[in-house]
């Protein structure tokens, strides 16, 4: 169903990052995925990173820190995101999160072929939701899972949370590509270098206000989140990392102080509540001062998160 059609070539991150394209099955718009690797493989253990919504892999220093912990690091730009986005495609469009199994399995095949006996799937936000369901459906494909602020529920009022899935499903039935919501630019502006943040990422691939939220995409997300809420049976060790607190939980207003030291996109309590429903071996680690993407937090929180990940992987594998 898939084929890697290019050899490794220099990546947009430069230095010792390389990338290769993964051709996918025909879904009407020529979708591809892109696998990125840091340096030459030197370990038997590898991390495969999966990004979130309106995102792509750009965290070069984070990858180097993880690699220094004793594993090779790969990252996957999913179809219609980042390096994989092609002219004429709707950014981020997907109608079932299970579609991503194709590129994850293809990426894992490359990682295994390069000599890795142990593979850890690391997913952030929507990528954490994707990684969670992938690990449940493919119990023998991985040795461990790390979750960085996984998106398990809508951060809104109880009424809107309860209605969002139905509203999205009805809207998707009428017009799958209809734009039904847009994100706030609060978080994006707080982290991008042009607006006072620390990170210089490509705004065409990761817009400050995110990509428009389309009906079919949100319907797919809510179906996946309901599946997590029903309970899963992940057979490998799981490490869930979150900020120690949320800003703007339950649809409340976000303060400037919260933007700099908490998860202002998701409610961390939704993640904590899911721990008991993922599997029998789940470790929860909270990071004081952590942002939504813990790898983009201020130095102290970022170091705390990275040490938690590398030490847990070393201990468990």
UniProtKB/TrEMBL annotation:
UniProt-listed InterPro entries = AB_hydrolase_fold, Hydrolase_4
One Gene Ontology MF term: hydrolase activity
UniProt keyword list: Hydrolase
- Residue span, Serine aminopeptidase S33 domain: 43-245
TM spans, by residue? none
Note the superkingdom of the native organism: Bacteria
| Pfam families assigned | Hydrolase_4
Instruction: Respond yes or no to whether keyword Hydrolase is given for this record.
Output: yes
**What is this protein's record name?**
Alpha/beta hydrolase
**Native species:** Litorihabitans aurantiacus
The top of its lineage is:
Bacteria, Bacillati, Actinomycetota, Actinomycetes, Micrococcales
């Amino acid at each position: 169903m898939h084929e890697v059609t290019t050899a490794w070539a220099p990546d947009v991150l430069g230095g010792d990052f390389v990338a290769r394209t993964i051709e996918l099955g025909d879904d009407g718009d020529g979708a591809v995925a892109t696998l990125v690797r840091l340096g030459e493989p030197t370990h038997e253990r590898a991390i495969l990173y999966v990004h979130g919504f309106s995102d792509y892999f750009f965290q070069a220093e984070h990858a180097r820190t993880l690699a220094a912990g004793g594993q090779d690091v790969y990252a996957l730009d999913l179809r219609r995101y980042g390096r994989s986005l092609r002219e004429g495609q709707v950014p981020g469009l997907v109608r079932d999160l299970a579609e991503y199994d194709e590129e994850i399995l293809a990426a894992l095949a490359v990682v295994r072929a390069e000599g890795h006996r142990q593979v850890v799937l690391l997913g952030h936000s929507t990528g954490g939701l994707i990684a969670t369901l992938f690990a449940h459906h493919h119990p023998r494909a991985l040795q461990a899972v790390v979750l960085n602020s996984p998106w398990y529920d809508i951060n809104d009022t109880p009424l809107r949370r309860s209605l969002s899935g139905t509203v999205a499903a009805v809207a998707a039935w009428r017009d799958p590509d209809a734009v039904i919501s847009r994100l706030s630019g609060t978080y994006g502006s707080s982290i991008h270098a042009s607006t006072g943040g620390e990170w210089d990422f490509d705004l065409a691939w990761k817009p400050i206000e995110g990509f428009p939220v389309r009906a079919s995409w949100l319907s797919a997300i809510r179906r996946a989140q309901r599946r997590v809420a029903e309970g899963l049976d992940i057979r490998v060790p799981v490490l869930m990392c979150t900020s120690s607190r949320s800003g703007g939980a339950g649809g409340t207003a976000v303060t400037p102080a919260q933007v700099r030291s908490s998860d202002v996109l998701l409610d961390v309590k939704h993640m904590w509540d899911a721990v008991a429903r993922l599997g029998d071996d789940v470790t929860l680690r909270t990071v004081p001062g952590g942002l939504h993407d813990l790898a983009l937090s201020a130095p102290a929180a970022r170091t705390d998160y990275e040490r938690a990940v590398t030490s847990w992987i070393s201990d468990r594998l």
